[in-house]
Amino acid sequence: MSYLPHLPLLLMMRFNVGDTHLGGVDFDNRLVNHLVNVFREKHKKDISGNAKALARLRSECEKAKRILSSTSQTTIELDCLYEGLDLYAPVTRALFNELNKDLFMKCMDTVEKCLLEARIDKIQVHEIILVGGSTRIPKVQQLLKDMFSVNGNTKELCKGINPDEAVAYGAAVQAAILSGEGDKKVEELLLLDVMPLSLGFEGAGGVMSVLIPKNTMIPTKKERICSTFYDNQKSFNVKVFEGERVKTKDNFFLGKFVLKGFDPLPKGVPQINVIFDVDADGIVEVTAEDKATGIEKKITINNKHGRLNPEEIRRMVRDSKKYKAEDELAKKKVKAKNALENYAYEMRERAKKIEEAVEETIEWLECNQLAEIGEFDYKKQELGRYLRDDPNYSNTSNSGVKVPIWCTWRCPPNGWVCLNTDGSVFENHRNGCSGSACGGLVRDSSGCYLGGFTVNLGNTSVYFSGAMGCCSRSEVGVGSWLQEGEGGH
């Protein structure tokens, strides 16, 4: 996942994050493991230890993955897969999505991480370019659309570039720029890349001393004054690593050299300047220089460390007309089947969430046996959100009055503001008005309510009400307010 601010004739690679342990083969493996279990249950035979059978199965699973990007169902057929036994298994897109649900979420976690490191909001992203074959997976595309949807406006994905060829296109453009053989438009382009991992050297105790942090724009040059670890040290070892771990043993070793010839002095006295110089191609030159004698040593680390033919197209057009009615019927049947399967998976997920919500509510009840009617009504409404399809569910309180999303409480006095529970100012109460002070509700880790607070803008003091009585309120955890006279105000 990369974030590139786009200026005319300038592409700046500002942030680049990824998961080197996640790729298309991981999706294949999930389907392979599922079908190994299917074969075991049907034939009472285990093929997990047979390399030849697994290779055939993995190849078919990869094909099935690609087919499921354009259709909702396919079938894996393998004759004589193991000991003369065949494998015949239908695979739906819904099943594929279920098998890889956690991997899809890991993909989205990577996107979130990139936005976080770049310190940008999703609303600031103007275009999403898909690169890599796995971006063809419909579920991945849907999750991306959902993530970048703002106020009901869906962000469309850029699919104009072949995701399998995007890297080759970029390499070709960069080669044209470097060789000077491209046209004028290409020659005027400037690509500024970033370091994919942090660069540093080993410090005392095997700790990684980072000199060039990850996502630093290149070319770049950084330096740091170091010294010896013990008295009368006659040499200084420089071990270069890249990675994000604290200990160098957990990072990737790039190279090392030894600086010799400087005067033996008490530890900490020699001044050795360590310089990391990275050019536009990512080639790293590391230099260590003794400032007293001018002696230096350096090391250079480079970067070593199908389509249908016309006849087939015409035949497919003829067949589509010939079997149109049959295809429509089959399409409706498959659609109904997939709808049922998707609904079943959704219901299973909802059941898990309901179970978690019920457990949380029971724990809250144990902690709040003496709560007021309004509070019990609110918790019932909160739990009822998970049961919106339940015809017996109602969001009304015992008195028949609906509990509003935002309760209407009185504003704080002038000079005071109400805080949401995340610490932000509740803008509707910024200017203050007559009435008692009010503020966000505070509760401990077990869910027990402790009190409310307000902040005085004049002297930045905080008033905490202490233990408070329970009262009807708005959604706790988003922002809610105390009524006049409650909570010790």
Automatic annotation (TrEMBL):
It comes from Glycine max. It comes from the Eukaryota. This is Uncharacterized protein. The keyword Lipid metabolism does not apply. GO terms for biological process: protein refolding. GO terms for molecular function: ATP binding; ATP hydrolysis activity; ATP-dependent protein folding chaperone; heat shock protein binding; protein folding chaperone. Keywords: ATP-binding, Nucleotide-binding. InterPro entries: ATPase_NBD, Heat_shock_70_CS, HSP70_C_sf, HSP70_peptide-bd_sf, Hsp_70_fam. The keyword Phosphoprotein does not apply. Pfam families: HSP70 (PF00012). One of its GO terms (cellular component) is cytoplasm.
